[in-house]
Amino acid sequence: MATRSMGAGIGFRWLSDGIRVGFSHPKPLFGGAAVLVGVCLLPSLITLPVQFHEMSAGRPPSATLSFMLMALSALFGLLIIPLYAGYLQLVDAAEREREARVSGIFNPYRQGEAWRLIGLGVANFVVYIAGVAIIVLATGGGIARWYMQVLAGQAAHQLPPALPDGFWSAIALFMVFGLWMMGYYAISLGQVALNKRSVFGAIGDGAIGAFKNALPLFVFALVSVLLWLAAVVVFVIVAMVLALVARLISPWLTFVVLIPLYVGLLLFMFSAMFGVMYHLWRDVCGGDTAIAMPPPLIA
After folding, report:
1. Under 8 Å between Cβ of 126 and 150
2. Of the candidates 125, 293, 106, the residue with the CA atom closest to the CA atom of residue 199
3. How far apart, in whole angstroms, are the C-alpha atoms of residue 178 and residue 174?
4. CB 164 within 8 Å of CB 146
5. How many CA atoms are closer than 13 Å to the CA of 116, on its beta-carbon side?
6. What is the pTM of this model?
């Protein structure tokens, strides 16, 4: 399937559309984001009590226990990927003014698409690991040895070692790779979720589409960082003012005020992130094919 190359300014529009989409369709998208947040937090209900128990016993988690917790988190991460696809379908339905309900995020499981999406998640993980390995090897492998020394030093309560040669070159390459990976993931997930592409076809579309749109991805990342810094400053000021006022009335009121504020920020971040992914995919790979698709089954 052909992928399109967009102009640099489209990166700013991806961000603005991503921010707009949640406020344009608040009930399905913020509701769906709440479900996603709840599901993403489920592994913590298991891992955090185990970690706290080990800490309260005064011993670090064993290697076996750490591996089991990591494996559990990884398994849960794969099982959540179909819900990400369902949320993209929810965004697509809302933007095309079709019926969109919160329960629609579970449609990939209902429609038998979950295994294909989990396969895409495994493939994307392999692509990510391969990219990191290539960067580490290309910069001489010093950053890997340095990282292992840092971990060993933390366990022994020692100062971290000096930065290795090629450290900043590796950081620059990681940033470029992260930028490409962002576009690649959005396109590949959109292709499987919305265009019903095969896993390998979606991987090819994601890789080529991200390369073709490196400049708008850079513009999007730059504007996002600047906007995020400004938003953090405003959010901290608002949170501090509200906390101060609430504390004057009652210390418990501080939690009553701040918790909804943080939850609202989290839901907004989820809806904006998937809104950006959707509009990025639609500009690069959507169009007539996506419009001709039958409407997703939203129950």
Report:
1. no
2. 125
3. 6
4. yes
5. 23
6. 0.84
pLDDT tens per residue, the chain (299 residues)?
678 889 888 999 999 999 999 999 999 999 999 999 999 888 787 777 776 766 666 666 666 767 777 788 888 889 999 999 999 999 999 999 898 899 999 999 999 999 999 999 999 999 999 999 898 888 776 777 777 777 676 656 666 667 777 788 888 899 999 999 999 999 999 999 999 899 999 999 999 999 999 999 999 999 999 999 999 999 889 888 888 888 778 777 777 778 888 888 999 999 999 999 999 999 999 764 443 343 443 33
Residue spans per domain, the chain: 10-291
What would the two tokens of residue 44 be? 């913590």
Structure tokens of 209?
A: 């589409």
What's the token pair of residue 180? 């490409």
Torsion over CA of 61, 62, 67 and 73, rounded to 10 degrees? -20
45 Cβ contact list (under 8 Å, min separation 6): none
